[in-house]
Structure formats: C-alpha cells, structure tokens
Amino acid sequence: MSFLRLALVLLASALPLGVLAQSADGPVSKLSVELNAVQDVGEACRLSFLVENLTATTIDEAIFETVIFDTAGGVVTLSLFDFRDLPVGRPRVRQFDLPGMACDALGRALINGSSSCIVNGAESGVCQEALLLSSRVDVELLG
After folding, report:
1. Could you give the C-alpha distances from 2 to 13, 28, 44, 90, in angstroms and in order?
2. For residue 87, what are the contacts with CB-CB under 8 A and spacing of at least 6?
3. Which secondary structure element, helix H or strand E, spans residue 9, and what is its range?
4. Burial class (CB in 10 A: 0-12, 13-18, 19+), 17
C-alpha cells in the first residue's frame, strides 16, 4: 500500500515538471499571413496582407501559389503572389491586385502552397512549415 502511495506522489509531483518542460521549448516559430483588407481600385480588387515573420530566420524570398474563389465557390484564378523579403520580427504589408474582379465577388483565397521560399540563398521549407493564416475581413483565407 505504501508503494502505491509513493508512486502516486512521485507521479503527481512529476506532472508539473512535464508541463513546464513543454512550455519552455521556446517561442513558437510562425510566419503569420493575415488578409488585412480588400478594396476596389479601379477595375480591380486589391488584397492587402499583413505578414509577420516570427521564425528564427530572415526569408529572402517568399512566393505563394494563391487560388482565388468567387462567392459561389468557383475558381477565378490561380496566381503566384510574391511577398518578397520578410525580415525577422518586422511586419510587412504586401498588396496584390486582382484585375477585372470586384471585391464583393471575392469569396475566399487559398494559399495552395509555397512556390519558392529562399533562406540564405537556398530553398527552405520554413514558409510552408511555419505558415499561420488569418483574415481580418469577411473573405476567408485558407491554407
């Protein structure tokens, strides 16, 4: 009986250490891409993205294959959005125009994957692995 009590005490005292060990792994590495605004500009819908590179490395080039859907769910276009360089810890705003499309016809956008992600002169998986998507507007951003 005392062995069982001792085992339970040891187990209970070890649990908080395990929780602390998990939270002490360090900061979460993420590449945050937020669809921040959509605006009609002439005959185009302009998408404004707020990007924050919270990974441990500067991204020299980030190009994402992006699919635009209309409000009925149909594919309108598949494009490459060049987010250019993304320094660590410095927010960037990048804008892309969708010619011939009004913003009220825009249903959602899908980041289909990373077409190019260059870090220190070489292709990297960080753009895909750390990608965290959100939208501040009524248009859904998927990935």
Report:
1. 16, 42, 75, 57
2. 53, 58, 59
3. helix 2-23
4. exposed
Q: Which residue has the tokens 């507007």?
A: 137
Q: Tens digits of per-residue pLDDT, 33-51? A: 999 999 999 999 999 999 9
24 three-state secondary structure: coil
| CA pair distance 19, 112, nearest whole angstrom | 35
Residue of 49, 55, 45 whose CA lies nearest to 83: 49
Q: What is the pTM of this model?
A: 0.79
Paired strand residues for 119: 122
Give the C-alpha separation, 77 to 79, whole Å. Answer: 6
CA 40 vs CA 30, 94, 103, 131: distances in Å: 30, 16, 6, 27
Q: Read out DSSP for 29-49?
A: PEEEEEEEEEEEETTEEEEEE
Tracing tokens 């360090």 back to the chain, one arrives at 26
